[in-house]
Amino acid sequence: MIGVFDSGLGGLTALCELVKLLPGEDFVYFGDTGRVPYGSKSADTVIRYSTEIMRFLSGFGIDAALVACGTASSAALPTLRREFPIPVFGVIDAAAAAAAAATVTRRVGVIGTATTVRLGAFERGIKSLDPGISVTSVACPLFVHLVEDGFTDPDDPVTLAAAERYLSPLRGTGIDTLILGCTHYPIISSAIAKTLPGVRLISSSKAAAEKLAESYGTGTAHGARGTIRCFVSDTPEGFESAGQIFMGDIPLGHAEFVDISKY
Amino acid sequence: MIGVFDSGLGGLTALCELVKLLPGEDFVYFGDTGRVPYGSKSADTVIRYSTEIMRFLSGFGIDAALVACGTASSAALPTLRREFPIPVFGVIDAAAAAAAAATVTRRVGVIGTATTVRLGAFERGIKSLDPGISVTSVACPLFVHLVEDGFTDPDDPVTLAAAERYLSPLRGTGIDTLILGCTHYPIISSAIAKTLPGVRLISSSKAAAEKLAESYGTGTAHGARGTIRCFVSDTPEGFESAGQIFMGDIPLGHAEFVDISKY
């Protein structure tokens, strides 16, 4: 069984990829909907919340965990890897590797939440692979809310205006590759692509899911479709319909409430 | 001493008004920055969080409390008034009274978070004063994030595009008065006013502060400037500079961290 968590529902983009890659596997997903978002909160608070969630997920006897949140991966991975005796994957390394492999101009952009950009983990990940690559990081705090509040049409004028505000400084930097360093961003990738034409977008969710699936192998697949159990820290009403935006055609069941601050 | 709380920093707009009206009074402010925002969370979760905060504030021996948050006022006031033996003021009643007194067309608009609009407390407040007033409520979930992420210039194209999206349905309804049902909204009132020219805006923060000051009297003023103590549930770094946006020229000190889920 694999545990997956995010500040809210954005991490379902990673779960969706994982289910496609490991269809026989069982998954338990936790979305911290009672405390979402993480991207404007401090690293200390994000570490505390992530540790509580990992304690909760560990109760299911998970064999591996995916921190499907750019902010929690940036802030909490070292702590979680030290405290929990299972492989803990984040969304940083695989995206950094994919970007380093993809760039021809050797100039890469990173977009994420305020805390993700401040912590600089994607940038360090890329530099550790190739110190010669130039990295420009931009915080796009409003993007997560545009996704959660439904401003997801590719031609949405509000989303396009926000994308123009955040991303226009990246034009002229020579980047040919951009890491979407927040698991919500693939949902508005069309607006991002329109603002930065010709730039290759790397989904950190997809890259992380592929890396986990590769490391974890397919040996655990038992033929039958695996199960997905979902938990949230706000009341679970509305989870199924809201979550489906992120899951495409993979059916998502009900979620159960958990008082996560007790863990 | 008066306790004031909000999901985050928006309630400082109400604290600012209170300090002007009761300059000799002592205040304790709690901003739930570790769990902000409330507006997209369920009523049950908002009631649970508000109760924890009132338990914390009660430890200071406060004589009265102001729930300086449209969502928490909409969801939690009956519970808090039942559970705590002090006057608990919210932002609903005073704004409803001000709107009912101001409207000439007897058509009033209300804007707030998704949960505030779903709960309908402002609408019920107006109708209880004058059932003949027609009320149109619109959820504007992105506004709180536009304020928190700094899209506060009166000519900001992102904020104007979002205001147009949310508020254009209100044009043609004949409203002449609009309640800003979230304590963040006064910060972007210029953009709101541009989208709805000629409509009188009622700040729920200001109305609530005036009502509390009137009820509470000035008898407690002891001549000297009162104190302001601030607490937050995220780490307090950055509180002072971020909070000052809401406080105008009233100086705001440091904040202290409190692990609010333990209350």
What are its keywords?
homodimer, 263 residues, alpha/beta, Rossmann fold, 2 domains, six-stranded parallel beta sheet, four-stranded parallel beta sheet, 10 strands
Could you walk me through the main structural features you see in this protein, from its secondary elements to its overall organization?
The structure is a homodimer of 263-residue chains. The first copy, chain A, is α/β, with parallel strands linked by helices and 263 residues long. Chain A has two domains: 2-90 and 207-262, Rossmann fold (3-Layer(aba) Sandwich), CATH 3.40.50.1860; 93-204, Rossmann fold, CATH 3.40.50. In chain A, 43% of the residues lie in helices and 17% in strands. Chain A has eleven helices and ten strands. In chain A, strands 4-3-1-2-9-10 form a six-stranded parallel beta sheet, sandwiched between helices. The first copy, chain A, has a four-stranded parallel beta sheet with strand order 6-5-7-8. In chain A, strand 7 (177-180), helix 9 and strand 8 (200-203) form a beta-alpha-beta unit. In chain A, helix 1 runs parallel beside helix 10, helix 2 (43-58) crosses helix 3 and helix 4 (93-102) crosses helix 6. The radius of gyration of chain A is 17 Å and the shape is globular. The two termini of chain A are 20 Å apart. The interface between A and B is medium-sized, with 26 and 26 residues.
Element layout with pairings:
Two copies of one chain form a homodimer.
Chain A: E1 2-6, H1 12-21, E2 27-31, H2 43-58, E3 64-67, H3 70-83, E4 88-89, H4 93-102, E5 107-112, H5 114-119, H6 121-129, E6 134-139, H7 142-148, H8 157-167, E7 177-180, H9 189-195, E8 200-203, H10 204-216, E9 228-232, H11 239-247, E10 255-257
Parallel strand pairs in A: 1-2, 1-3, 2-9, 3-4, 5-6, 5-7, 7-8, 9-10
